[in-house]
Amino acid sequence: PTHPSYDASVHKCNDKLIGAWDMTGDGNKGEDTEGHGTHTASTAAGNVTQATIAAPTMTIVRDISGVAPHANIVTYDVCVPAGCYGAAILDAIEQAIVDGVDVINYSIGGGPTDPWASDDALAFLAARDAGIFVATSAGNEGPDAASVSSPANAPWLMAAGATTHNRHFFNALTGMSGGGSPAPADMQGESITGAYGSHPIVHAKSKGDALCLQPFPAGTWTQGEIVVCDRGINARTEKADNVKAGGAGGFVLANTEAESEGLSADAYSLPGVHLGFQNAQVLRSWLDSGTGHVAAIAGTTVDESTGGADVMADFSSRGHNGPVPGVIKPDTAAPGVAVLAASMNLIEFQSMSGTSMASPHVAGAAALLKDLHPGWTPAELQSALMTTAHTDGVRKEDGVTPATPFEYGAGRIDLGQASRASLVLDETTAGYEAGNPALRGDPSGLNLPSMANDNCQDACSWTRTVKSVLAAPATWTATIVGAPPGLDVSVTPATFTLSPGLKTSLGVTANTTSFNATRDGQDGWGFAWLELATPGQPTQRLPIAVRKEYASDPLLLTKEASVLTAAPGDFVEYTITLRNRDSVANDYSLVDTLPAGVEYVAGSATGGLAYNAATRQLTWSGQIGPGAIDYAISPSDPLPYVNLQELGAQPVCATYFATGCDDAAIVWGLGTESYTFYGETLSEIVQSANSMLFGTDGWLGQACSACNQHLPEPAEINQVMAGLWRDTYPGAGGTGGELYAGFLPGLLDNPADTVFYANWHDVAQWGAASITSRHAIAIVLNGQSEPAGRIYYIYGNITGNLATNGYTVGVEDKYGDRGTTWAFAQCTGGPCIPHEPVGAPPANGTTLRLDPIISGTDWVRTFTYRVQVTTPTGALLTNVVEATSTSPNPESQSLWASADVTVSGPGPFVQVVATPAIQEPGGTVVYNISFGNRGNEDITGAELSDTLPSGVTYTSSDPAGTYESAGHKVVWSGLDLPAGSVRSATVTVSIAPGVAPGTWLLNRASLVGGGLPAVTSEFSHLVGTVEATIYLPVVSKNQ
Questions:
Q1: Helix, strand, coil: what percent of the chain each, to 5?
Q2: HSE of 442 in the Cβ direction (CA atoms, 13 Å)?
Q3: Which tens digits make up the pLDDT trace of 895-920?
């Protein structure tokens, strides 16, 4: 009360809340508006109390407590319903430093950015310099790889992923009957709702909105139906509200493949249950059969057994750490699913899920540890929490597969063990600053309680300095555990003795020479642990992540082996692909030296390779012509128009151009994401108020952005994605409408894919307010399952005659010499460039797809050859190819790529090959599978499976196997394989007509039996075309 800023009429401070700051200026006086801040604050330091969850359909009572119930709280309000303002966040961090707080919880984040160039990350570095520990949420973009948010990716913050705990709110869909196929058994899921008796059950797709994106009109359902909604795009509870508006009496949230088995115990506005993917697939299949489907909802029961704990939440963001790959993120994991804590006044308590809920567990733990060890620095507190964390039994979102440091960092925090840590690690502010890669710093060299290297060529090393915090001298042993086969990690010294307060340095080296990084499904990464142990104290562990690279530039040169493992005597085929992505022809020479342990198969080389037996080299030299990249525009199956405003996106004009948005444009940075446009990889894009996107090289600021052009046109603006380019004036003072942008998962056929999505909502023509449009542009980001560079133009609703004032639908490169116009009418104001009209405006509800194509056939060369394995079991065959360009192009003068094959011992084996290796959309492909038993003992009860790629439809198998639609695979069970036997099987599929030429499809065959680990074989084949135009292929890293 003595503080000069204290306002007794607004805030009533007490022994718990000792400060509350309003940094937003929104007139709300620092009060919580949504419950998020109250929930996280009470999780970190709430008092012991009895909580009552008054869900819309039931009530639950439980005793709860914050992690540090005797800690004081100071709140800093930096968010409004539209978002969290950067200036308010910086003001709050500065004020927290002035206030002298011990711990900050920051359950806020955005897309991944460079922490050394991020305002909030650097402000938190100042907080750490002031002795403040900062916990933050890793992000909710999982289970995608490299999805950790910012500032969570900064080395000086402790980022938390989310796990389940031992309390689950189970519910179930029961009593199913009817339909044209056998009714499924009862299905267990999660939610917090009451029961609902037997009623008809339907899928919302029957009403044209399977995702339940919008409220259904009243009277859509009239019998109290239980309505099933697919998960994705909008909020889970919003889907329940939307079906309730239409008359539904019950609700089922059905996961798609993207969410797998991850569940959330939400309190819906009507009785409902959330089902995992496997159950959801069975349910959807049953609902597609016959009529008269009936089901009931059992009602929530609370289960507090320990078996459900330590499962990673499907939404929890994963590593690796894109902007800072030399630092493992997240740092740790903590409970973040169905966390019960306080909320704002209107809802006293509620259960919430998110990494926002995991972060305050870490903050509360740090507060307790700080109280126990007041002299420890924030880095030392973090090291104690990380190195004593729990990893045994922590599983991925499927509840079965062991998780890795890219899910949980060092593990799920164990506060009891952290309080007994014997060693700590520290790092200085100067050290963090010196680690900036832009200043030639090395983040992997920071003294962190983890180690990573994303480009470990042959060998890489780290140094870590530890300090004893024991009261007496002690001796520790240092060992490496958990490394996969072939990854050789060592530590020196193996033992060391420290007196209280003294330090020593440990050297850790990883050797990847014998590591087949393609076998573990971790994108070339391998994991290990440095264990430090002394008697009577907790063993402390530091995670190690190493990535073995297989190509210097996989866009230009790649090498693949037909199998990952082979036995002595087997044949292996290598495929080399060399590309020229320049606009001029380049001369190349290619050299492939065979490793010891293989012999070349005479006559097997293709593509002009010549074999020299004396040097054991295959060579080629020649010229590769340029590729003329362009786009083909064609109608597509309609994609839904999504207004990002409804998903919480900030309005561009109102937020950034409040005084006027006429001809305005905003540059969006994509962080670690990128997209390919006319052969260039770009990480920024400009959104124009005039209903288009363009690249940062396309406009120097002199051209008329409101003057739409017929494309291509050398005059600026260039590098254009003209979804509906026209002169519009959204925002304040204009003729109406707004624009939004963001990353949008779940829009495409593969729900795991993410696009950059920009939409213009109800934007009106300048000078003609009756001409409006709702339209969007979606760009497929690199690394997705659809071809890199694909673009969608989505048209929700267009009113008025666009041709009256001019518009363009088309695309153009940054020079204005290549491009395509789908529809055009000349503009009427400004310096318009004359051209005859083309086409007609897009119809409402339609979508155009833009596919990158390359004209000509000389821009890529493919070479293959075969070898026979002669080396004994246990060897790793690493085959390296080198390409050198003699043309004056510094980006392509020296390239290399490699492939690994592990020589396996006796036992089961499997190989798969696709015929033909290139097939058109709609064509037939046969997967030829060879499998058997090389061992001396018979194998009984083996299982062969062939997992089909998305984009193909199963036709038949020989011998007949069982097709499982849930996993999109064919299975043969109960196979007996006598010693030395070899068998074969085939699977026939057809490529879906909508799969774009240039798409690579991956088939995976697996055989398990005899108590031995499963063996797998993969084969990628290309969707091609017989026309003169060759479509740009999707190029993936050789892993």
A1: 10, 40, 45
A2: 12
A3: 888 888 888 766 777 878 788 767 77
Model-wide pTM > 0.70:
no
Residues 334 and 990: their CA atoms lie apart, in Å, by: 45
Q: To 10 degrees, the CA torsion angle through 779, 785, 789, 790?
A: -60
Whether omega before 959 lies within 30 degrees of 0, making that bond cis, reads: yes
E runs forming strands in 336-487 = 339-342, 349-352, 423-424, 451-453, 459-468, 474-481
Query: Is 905:974 a contact under the CB 8 Å cutoff?
Result: no
Cβ contact 850:861 at 8 Å: no
Burial class (CB in 10 A: 0-12, 13-18, 19+), 663: middle
119: helix, strand or coil: helix
Query: Contact 53/350 with Cβ under 8 angstroms?
Result: yes
Residue type, 589: S
Is 242 in contact with 220 (CB distance < 8 Å)?
A: no
pLDDT computed for residue 890 by the predictor: 47
User: Which residue ranges form the domains of the chain, and what is each CATH number?
Assistant: 1-167+306-430 (3.40.50.200), 170-303 (3.50.30.30), 450-549 (2.60.40.2310), 553-626+858-904 (2.60.40.740), 629-855 (no CATH), 906-1039 (2.60.40.1510)
Question: What does DSSP assign to residue 454?
Answer: S
The residues near 936 (Cβ < 8 Å, ≥ 6 apart) are 906, 979, 980
Q: 776 — phi, psi (to 5°)?
A: -150, 160
Q: Pairing relation of β-strands 969-977 and 962-964?
A: antiparallel
Question: 946: closest CA among 958, 933, 934?
Answer: 958
For every residue of 64-84, DSSP letters joined together read E--SSTT--EEEEE-EETTEE
Confidence tier at 408 by pLDDT (50, 70, 90): very high
Q: CB-based burial of residue 997 (10 Å sphere; 0-12 exposed, 13-18 middle, 19+ buried)?
A: buried
Residue 179 is predicted with a pLDDT of 94
Under DSSP, the state recorded for 206 is G
> Is the pLDDT at 322 greater than 60, yes or no?
yes
DSSP, res 671:
T
Torsion over CA: 747, 748, 751, 753 (sign):
negative
Residue 585 clears pLDDT 90, i.e. is over it:
no
What gap in Å lies between CA 367 and CA 359, rounded to an integer? Answer: 13
Q: What is the DSSP letter of 920?
A: -
Laid out side by side, the sheet with 488-492 consists of 423-424, 459-468, 503-511, 488-492
> Measured between alpha carbons, how far is 713 from 716 in angstroms, rounded to an integer?
8
Residue 628 has pLDDT above 50, yes or no: yes
Point out which residues pair with 500 in neighbouring strands: none
State the distance between the two ends of the chain, measured CA to CA, in whole angstroms: 62
1036 falls in which pLDDT band (50, 70, 90)? Answer: very low
Distance in angstroms (rounded) separating the CA atoms of residues 10 and 18: 13
What's the pLDDT tens digit per position in 260-295? 788 888 889 999 999 998 899 999 999 999 999 999
Tens-digit pLDDT profile for residues 244-265: 999 999 999 999 877 778 888 8
Q: What's the per-residue H, E or C state across 399-428?
A: CCCECCHHHHCCCECCHHHHCCCCEECCCC
The DSSP annotation for 550-610 comes to: -BS-TTTEEEEES-SEE-TT-EEEEEEEEE--SSS-EEEEEEEEPPTTEEE-TT---TT-E
pLDDT per position as a tens digit, 689-702: 999 999 888 776 55
CB neighbour list of residue 940: distance below 8 Å, 6 or more residues apart: 976, 977, 1009, 1010
Token duo for residue 768: 């003609």
Give the torsion sign (CA, 272, 274, 275, 281). positive
- Distance, CA of 420 to CA of 966 (rounded, Å): 47
